[in-house]
């Protein structure tokens, strides 16, 4: 018998191989994540062959669909569509009915993803951000030899670098007030006090005592750093300050982590940030070990999403792969 079922603590581990390695802990340690994780499984004669996985995010008040996967032998039968439809049905009664999915544009399964989303009534995908990586001692050493790092523009007179952990309480208050008044773009705002930024190379720039920019990083593994938020005040975006800030942050990481074979950094840049996208494609790209463009799609759930039955037999079309 074929069966679609909601995954629980007893069945979660058996479905873990059906998603990406970085999402498997959601199922392998299901009891730890069950309050924010919803997984729908498809079994044939009791054997797991398909999975739809979602994770709710209170901070962004949305639900992220992490993956939909069907084993190759069972594709083309509508199982992926049935899984996503059932997942939507379950999420329709959750606090976060705005669904979000992002996926790379350069993988063989991308076309299947987009066909699946279209069948299920999702918005047309939009190019959202670039994800860049420089991983490995040789790649990082080559990056450090780049002219824009070796000969970074000097900061303007009256400007100085400082470690972000040295941000004063008064400066923090002013940034919070400015954030409320000006609404920094998502992904650029400093998000003060909400995450443990890496003290080694999270830097800010002051100009005559005013904080005008920051490069905030997060340690993700020994030797590995996420370059999370690069921002420069509009008045200084054509002075080279942003490149200087990034270059100094990279140099400070390598000064400590350079002996590690897997040393490196990863960051993402919104496509809407055109100056940075141009900088990446024209000056950073030769040094990157990976440059991937990601698409994003959304769906707002309505009452009709509540109508899917618990058990489903599938025998139609669709060819669905991983995210």
Pick out its properties.
323 residues; Aminopeptidase; 12 strands; elongated; disordered C terminus
Radius of gyration, taken over Cα atoms and rounded to an integer in Å: 23 Å
The CATH architecture of the largest domain is: 3-Layer(aba) Sandwich
Low-confidence stretches: 306-323
Q: Assign the CATH topology of the largest domain.
A: Aminopeptidase
Q: Determine the structural class based on helices, strands and strand pairing.
A: alpha+beta
The count of DSSP E runs of length 2 or more, i.e. the number of strands, is 12
Name the CATH homologous superfamily of the largest domain. Answer: Gcn5-related N-acetyltransferase (GNAT)
Count of individual helical segments? 10
Q: State the strand order across the main sheet.
A: 1-2-3-4-5-12-6-11-10-9-8-7
- Taking the alpha carbons of the first and last residues, their distance comes to 27 Å
Provide the succession of SSEs: EHHHEEEHEHEHHEHEEEHEHE
CATH class of the largest domain: Alpha Beta
Mean pLDDT equals: 87
The percent range for strand residues is 25-35%
Shape: elongated
Number of domains: 2
Q: Please give the share of residues in helix.
A: 25-40%
Largest sheet: 12 strands, mixed
